[in-house]
What we know:
Helices cover about 25% and strands about 25% of the residues. By secondary structure, it is α+β, with helices and mostly antiparallel strands.
Amino acid sequence: MRQPTYRSPELPTDLRADGVFVNLDGDYSYLTDGYYRGLEAEHENLVAIPSLQDALDAYVVPLALARAKGHGLGTPEWEIVNDLTISFQPPIILYPINPYMDEGQVVQEQGGLSEAVKSLSMSGKYAMVCQHLPPDSRVDTVRLVLGECLKPEYKELAQRLWRTFRLPLARVRIIVTGHEYLFSAISPLKKEELTQNEKGIIKEAGLWRG
């Protein structure tokens, strides 16, 4: 099957321009304050960043993986399962696909696999995404603030993630190998959780609203 490509519109050159609404809530999950602010902006025909579609898709791991790959970002080998019939041996990362859970879990050893699968699949009722962790890799988190990250190592990657997912605030879990970064998943980064230096990025962009 052909890998889909994604052609997101270009981000506005001026995020402060009339008609542009940058949603800095940081949690854009369904029915949250961030979701409703985006909904209101779209009803007012503003260019909402992120759009509701962008925001909701970003938190669904299989959709996010497809978008990342469609934009040329590296992704790990992965599959959707709901029991122990997993193609990969630990170490792996498991992410739930159900309306009640969103936190993933790294499983380092075979002994911890059964319990993790039972918990994240809710005893086989729901599917999970299983990602292979390459040998000698590590799992890290990139905190995105308007496409910037305070870790210099991830400066270029942060910009690519910003253009791909268009989330003003986000935590992006990545798998770091000896020669590349592999996109793993996205979770909210709430405005209240920002450090002073991260708030400084927003203030410098002229978007801080207290």
